[in-house]
Structure formats: structure tokens, C-alpha cells
Specification:
By secondary structure, the chain is mainly α. Helices cover 73% and strands 5% of the residues. The protein has helices at residues 2-47, 65-69, 88-103, 110-115, 117-163; strands at residues 49-52, 74-77. Strands 1-2 form a two-stranded antiparallel ribbon. The protein starts with a helix and ends with a helix.
């Protein structure tokens, strides 16, 4: 019974990990989309120009009348559309995600996760890292074995010299 309880806890832990990973991926996409939207907005604002309609009247001795009339003498030239166009890649991703999640009754389904492009690239990089790590460990073991063999040969040689 202890074994099944541990198995249940392990499965719950994996479920929580999948949920966290899914929400993190969604957050990454959300942040990336928001950043692109802000960059678009800034670039559109850079293209805007604000200039007075006519030259401002000279300030009189009170100094305030020119400030009162200044806002009335200004206009915005060529009003830009401030709405940022949608990001087609992100829209496509959301569409695919919603159709896949719509067909799957479980939002944390392994099938859904395994088809996610971020998951696939993550798995690919882990595979490469794992292979490299195994190669490094193998090289270290071979190096250690070689050093031990050299030490044994030196000890043997010293024993032979001591006997003579």
C-alpha cells in the first residue's frame, strides 16, 4: 500500500510540474506578444509629428496670455492609427493550441504537450545535452582509468628497483 501511495504522490507531482510548465509556456508567449506590441506602438509614435498651426503670438508683459492661447494653436498632423496589427504567428499558435486543446478533454494531456513546438525543441536540446554529458563522463572515466594504470606501473617499477 505504501508503494501505491508513493506512486500516487509521484503522479500528482508530475501533474503539477506539467501544469506549471504549461502556464510558464503560455506566459512566455504572452510576454513575447506584449513586447512586440509595445515595439510596434513605439515605432508608430516615432513617426508622429506634432507642430503648431501658426506661429505663437509674442508673449505680452503678463506672460500668461501666450500660454493660454498656445494649446489652441496646436494640432496633430497626420493622425497615425495607434492600434497595433495582430501578430500572425502568435494568432496561428493560439488557433492551433485552441483546436488541439478543444479536441482533447484533458488540458494537461501528454499528447497536447508533446506536439508543442517549445516542448519539441526543449526535448531536442535535452537529447543533445544528455549525449554530450554521457560523452564527457565516458572521457573522464577513461582518463581516470589511464591515470590509475600509470600509477600501478610506477609502483610496480619502484618495487622492482627496491628488490635490486
Amino acid at each position: 500500500d505504501m508503494c501505491s501511495m508513493m506512486e500516487q504522490e509521484r503522479m500528482e507531482g508530475e501533474e503539477v510540474a506539467r501544469m506549471v510548465q504549461g502556464s510558464l509556456l503560455n506566459k512566455v508567449y504572452e510576454i513575447q506578444f506584449e513586447r512586440e506590441r509595445q515595439l510596434n506602438l513605439v515605432s508608430q509614435m516615432m513617426q508622429m509629428t506634432v507642430s503648431p498651426c501658426q506661429t505663437l503670438p509674442n508673449c505680452d508683459k503678463q506672460g500668461m496670455s501666450c500660454l493660454d492661447s498656445a494649446p489652441n494653436n496646436m494640432r496633430v498632423e497626420e493622425q497615425q492609427n495607434m492600434e497595433v496589427p495582430p501578430n500572425p504567428a502568435y494568432t496561428q499558435y493560439l488557433l492551433e493550441r485552441s483546436t488541439v486543446e478543444g479536441t482533447s478533454c484533458d488540458p494537461h494531456s501528454q499528447e497536447v504537450k508533446r506536439n508543442d513546438p517549445v516542448y519539441l525543441t526543449s526535448m531536442a536540446s535535452h537529447g543533445v545535452w544528455h549525449r554530450n554529458k554521457q560523452q564527457i563522463l565516458l572521457q573522464q572515466q577513461q582518463q581516470l582509468a589511464f591515470q590509475q594504470q600509470q600509477q600501478l606501473e610506477l609502483q610496480h617499477q619502484q618495487q622492482l628497483e627496491d628488490q635490486q
